[in-house]
Amino acid sequence: MRPNYNSAVATFCYNIAHDLPITVNDPVVELEMLFIDDLIEEMYDALEGRPHKCEYPGVGEVVDGVEYDGLTPCPSGNGRFCYAPVTHKATLGRIVELLNIYHDQPLNLMMPAIPNGSFEKKLYSMYLSYLPPEKVAFDLKMNCDERGSFTELLKTTDHEQFSVNFSKPGITKGQHWHNSKWEFFIVVSGHALIQERRIGSDEVLEFEVSGECIQTVHMLPGYTHSITNLSDTEDLVTLMWANEIFDPQHPDTFFERVVGE
Fold first, then answer.
1. Plot region of 232 (φ>0 → left; ψ -120 to 50 → alpha; else → beta)
2. Start-end of H helices in the chain
3. Whole-number Å distance between alpha carbons of 158 and 89
4. Nearest to 221, CA basis, from 244, 193, 187, 191
5. Residue 215 pLDDT more than 70?
6. pTM metric for this prediction
7. CB–CB of 204/194 below 8 Å?
């Protein structure tokens, strides 16, 4: 589909991806869309002798209690026509709303829910195909100090937050606990000691991990935890997932050392 030529959706994708204005005269107008993957799937089915067959009843004709408009396929095993059964309907307003969300993702790191096979997933793929080269890569905010850095990678509406942590040699990070938040720590490079202690207990759980044998370690709610770079020369790189997006107004993060001084 060519933008500014034969497809309103392609035009919206191209213009929004390129920070160009769009015009929507009536946001409640509904479009029915057939995406290329679904069309190709039906073509394969037809070539393999498994086409979806249909008829096109005339305007006002009623079949099985459904009144047709002359354009809507009526499935029929003996039909004269083939059709692609998977299409998606959405209003112009909804399409533009989603495209603006996709446009803003590099700015706020928020990835919306995109269930497998959904209209949202297919539209996002379409939008990405119109990205200009200068937008294919984008910078992330690295929070750096003398200990290393912490960078949020991605936030989602249904799978929460992913981050990456760099710790310099000998550095310990963490020493805090959460009421209800839990996390996964996955060391992908370096050698580390992860320690956890239940609040009110003296028992310490210890996990020595490294990028040579990648493991996932739960940071349990109600356990103060820390991670120490055991190397004297190499940075420690840890991928972190949290079940909640960090909210600075309600951080659910409380300082307490795992092991006393």
1. alpha
2. 8-17, 36-47, 92-108, 119-128
3. 23
4. 244
5. yes
6. 0.86
7. no
